[in-house]
Design a protein that fits this description.
Blueprint (H helix, E strand, L loop, with lengths): L14 E3 L2 E3 L6 E5 L6 E6 L3 H20 L2 H17 L1 H12 L3 H21 L6 E3 L7 E8 L2 E5 L7 H13 L2 E5 L5 H14 L6 E3 L4 H13 L3 E7 L2 H10 L6 E5 L4 E5 L5 H13 L9 E7 L3 H13 L19 H16 L3 E4 L15 E4 L6 H4 L6 E7 L2 H9 L3 E2 L1 E5 L3 H10 L4 E4 L14 E2 L2 E2 L4 H6 L2 E8 L4
Parallel strand pairs: 7-8, 7-10, 8-9, 10-11, 12-13, 12-18, 13-16, 15-16, 18-19
Antiparallel strand pairs: 1-2, 3-4, 5-6, 6-22, 11-21, 14-15, 17-20
Helix pairs in contact: 1-7, 2-4, 2-5, 2-6, 3-4, 3-6, 4-5, 9-10
Pfam family, one: Aldedh
Organism: Caballeronia choica
Protein name: Succinate-semialdehyde dehydrogenase (NAD(P)(+))
Length: about 500
């Protein structure tokens, strides 16, 4: 059963280029499927580099007029967009649940979260300050001003199809940039609906352009943006491998990049932690979106003195999660995005069990429910030799590792090329300060599992990327600094 929309016109199947909804230049389409059923939701435009070039042309044509708008004028448009997103929460959540699979209540939460970035950057648009540099020579005045980077290419993943695109588009528009966007091939419908609402809010033609494309055609489309000198910035959320590709291929035109890439987050439970609070925090951090988030804890380190008790508490909570499609109002875990994701999860669990892990709950496919369901799983006695340690599972699997000392926990947590998020629970405030500083991550949750906020800077270190999204810092990545030296004033 598919969810019904109040406004069927929000289910868009074409590209938005220069204010017009249009098919791909070559007329090609591809299918968007519901991961809960395998059924086809819609046939959407399958764009190529010709469509990408048309979108860039439209963005270039609109760029000067948009950057010259007063900041408060851009802010007013963003505020209208925010109001429309909120007003259409039910339809946006329904579209998201159908194409991505997350439970409807969680999808509504994502709509609110994504909308919060639009509201935040609407306000930030009016706070783009410059500096008057203290005089160094008589007769000269020096100042620094911030200007929009130019055309921004925004490329987003399938796991948060509304929030990820909103938190890239909103600061770009606030800064005075124009945007060419490409959502993930599995989940284009949410982004297209969001673009339709932006158009309704008064975003001028060409300021925001949105393309859908299958994997192969999408690479071709993005490749055109990489080579086009008019595109001055790329903002990407996705895998580290693709992030490295974008960095390499954009070097020829020296674009500015913001890369929010893969993670392998540790979650540390010290023996002085409030175990009930730690379980609640882990449930929020690990099982949101079925474990399909880049900040999900992938390695859960529990100090030896509380290992057994924590494992018991966690297994009870995880075993009680309701797995169901989005149409079930009681659903807490939906289907995974596709068969490839299920295969990876199953491979990780089987590998762990073969190397000595014990399944406390779950550990199996739920084929009776549909093709893409997996039981929420807790594994005890995980070790460094297992795939779950070094590969991002991206699913509802929580492996527990035993540790003895604070030094060991920090060493194990940092023993990864990634550094996006890290979490730990302790009631010792001296330890809290030590561990917060020692963890090599861009985001740290201290006695907290839900760390995301539009007011906070989000991003990683090491191979988890660079640049920040959200907060006052998130606007900086869409601005360049111009130094102006005025002489002849004496």
């Amino acid at each position: 059963m598919e969810l019904k929309l109040k406004r069927e016109e929000l289910l868009r199947r074409q590209n938005l280029i220069g204010g017009e909804w249009t098919d791909a230049v070559n007329g090609a389409h591809y299918s968007v499927a519901n991961p809960a059923t395998g059924g086809i939701i819609a046939e959407v435009a399958n764009s190529t580099k010709a469509d990408a070039r048309a979108a860039t042309d439209a963005a270039a044509k609109a760029a000067d007029a948009w950057r010259e708008r007063l900041p408060r004028e851009r802010a007013e448009i963003l505020k209208r967009w925010h109001a429309l997103i909120v007003a259409n929460t039910d339809d946006l959540a329904a579209i998201m649940s159908m194409e991505q699979g997350k439970p409807l209540a969680e999808a509504k939460g994502e709509v609110a979260y994504g909308a919060s970035y639009v509201a935040w950057f609407a306000d930030e648009a009016t706070r783009i300050y410059g500096d008057l540099i203290p005089q160094q020579q008589r007769g000269k005045q020096m100042r620094a001003i911030r200007e929009p980077m130019g055309i921004v290419a925004a490329i987003t993943p399938w796991n948060f199809p509304l929030a990820m695109i909103a938190r890239k588009i909103a600061p770009a528009l606030a800064a005075g940039c124009t945007v060419v966007g490409k959502p993930a091939e599995d989940t284009p419908l949410t982004a297209l609906a969001l673009a339709a609402l932006a158009q309704e809010a008064g975003v001028p033609p060409g300021v925001l352009n949105m393309l859908s494309a299958s994997r192969d055609q999408g690479i071709e489309a993005v490749g055109d943006w990489l080579a086009d000198d008019r595109v001055r910035k790329i903002t990407f959320t996705g895998s580290t491998a693709v992030g490295k590709y974008l960095a390499r291929e954009s070097a020829g035109t020296l674009k500015k990049l913001s890369l929010e890439l893969g993670g392998n987050a540790p979650f540390i439970v010290f023996d002085d932690a409030d175990l009930d609070a730690a379980v609640v925090g882990l449930m929020a951090a690990k099982f949101r979106n079925g474990g399909q988030t880049c900040v999900c804890p992938n390695r859960i380190y529990v100090q030896a003195g509380v290992f057994d008790k924590f494992a018991e508490l966690l297994a009870a909570r995880v075993g009680a999660l309701k797995v169901a499609p989005a149409t079930d109002p009681q659903a807490q875990i939906g289907p995974m995005i596709n068969a490839k994701a299920i295969d990876k999860i199953d491979r990780h669990v089987n590998d762990a069990v073969s190397k000595g892990a014990k399944v406390l709950t779950g550990g199996k496919r739920l084929t009776e429910m549909g093709p893409n369901y997996y039981a929420p799983t807790v594994l005890a006695h995980a070790t460094n030799e297992m795939l779950v340690t070094c590969e991002e599972t991206f699913g509802p699997v929580a492996p527990l590792y035993r540790f003895e000392s604070e030094e060991e926990a920090i060493r194990l947590s940092n023993d990864t090329p990634f550094g996006l998020a890290a979490y730990f629970y302790t009631q010792d405030m001296r330890r809290a300060e030590r561990v917060s500083r020692a963890l090599q991550a861009g985001v740290v949750g201290l006695n907290e599992g839900a760390v995301a906020s539009e007011a906070a800077p989000f991003g990683g270190v090491k191979e988890s990327g660079y640049g920040r999204e959200g907060s006052k810092y998130g606007l900086e990545d869409y601005l360049s600094i111009k130094y102006i030296c005025q002489g002849g004033l004496d």
